[in-house]
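agent> fetching stored inputs for the phosphoric acid mono(formamide)ester docking request
agent> found them:
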Amino acid sequence: MLKNRSLVSIRDLSRAEIEWVLDTARRLENHRGRHLEHRQVALLFYEASTRTRNSFLTAVHQLGGCEAGFSSGEGSSVQKGESLHDTIKMFSAYCDAIVLRHPRDGAARWAADISDVPVINAGDGKNQHPTQTLLDLFAVQATQGRLENLSVGIMGDLKYGRTVHSLVDALSLFPGMQLHCISPESLAMPDSYLSQWRAKGLQATHHQRLEELVPQVDVLYCTRIQRERLPDETEYEKVRGIYRLNAASLVSARPHLKVLHPLPRVDEIHPDVDSTPYAYYFQQAAGGVAVRKALIYLLLGLEG
Ligand code: CP
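agent> prediction call returned; pasting tokens
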């Protein structure tokens, strides 16, 4: 079903395919094997990463493979001015798959069109972060027991945050989802995502205040302000620290509420939330290894 395909946008997957990836992730969670023996995955990271890069690396190792690539342009011929086109051509010759993070919207789609091997988008600009969304759904399913009829709050930078763009697209595939957005006006969710959501007959509301949102949701997905994507520092100073979730702000939460965050966090979740039963962001990130193992397994058509 997924063999030899690229994953550029979460829109590349149907609901059934998403569920297949999540089922496979559950199956492979504690699995180690030699499925990728003598095979190599390129990790091409033109932007900083802790979780995405290292969970892919861990996934490749747990499947018995090895990696090539770079964790920033420095130290590679990107520094000498080599184009993305030529870099993709080279790694597509050396490796069985390419994982690409790039600051430009659309870079992963372009790479997938050039590459002879599957390309997995590890985040392109403010556009999409589909593997993050799969691990977000893995966390929602694990904590809520289902992927439908849920009330989901998303908070923070909904304009430049690629994780929320992919997440909203994915959630719209599941019935009975209610979306509650909380952001400053200047960082509101682009209409293109919301119109698609409403076109499916799903509900979406917008809030300015965190307190009114907390009692209404099953999942609260927090994000940091994407400082590096804002036009300038003045714009950042206007919104810096605008939402700060702390343990006290969760007193009216539903008992089964889970707070998620793609991480890294800056100041939007106080560390005193970490010890509450609502915090799930570290387990969420840990699930990234299983989900990325499942993706590599399915896209490369591994057996056994
Ligand atoms: N969530 C996420 O993409 O984290 P990294 O930037 O650390 O990979």
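agent> quick read of the result: Residues 130-144 form the longest helix (15 residues).
agent> awaiting further instructions
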